[in-house]
Amino acid sequence: MRGRYRRVGADDEAELEIRALYGLIRRRSVVKAFDWSWSGTEFLVKRGQQGVAHIDRDDVERFFRNTRVALRLTFHLTDVVKRLTARMRLTEWEWHTVIGLRDAFWTAMLTGAAWSLQAGLTGFLSHRLRLCAKPVLRVEPLFGSSVFKTNLTFTARIRAGLLLLAGLSMFGRILRVRGGIEGWVKLLTKPDKAEPQRT
Description:
The protein is of the alpha+beta class. It is 40% helix and 37% strand.
């Protein structure tokens, strides 16, 4: 799995490529020219000329509610996720950011904040994944002009057999919860009405 995210000014571009079975299975998704903004009550995500997606408080609450339901419908779901991520190998992690403001003081402040963000996220991932390559982090201050550019590239690998075992393990854990199968069907088809049954 290889991903890339790039932001130049107000334009964003994201790309995700998934390959399996030595390239026999390949899936590539590219999202170009999307932008996001905050209107005060909701989060707006615009993708080219395809319209605007609205993410408000109800959407966020629905996401967390469905997450809690999924945890209740699966016996120790977090254990499956932790074991799977621990087997994942991160073979590439490169993050380059350019920050510039007309004021030198604020440029230095934002540069330090960007370093903290990149180093913090990299440290978090190092405790969850297996880092097989040295992370490349760069933050370049650009004094005298207003500019913001960031480019993140990563490559993660995991054996297909481990994904299959994780899927079988998760299915077995769902069976251990009374009403787990029915609850997951409701969760995937009608997320707003899915409720777990007592175990």
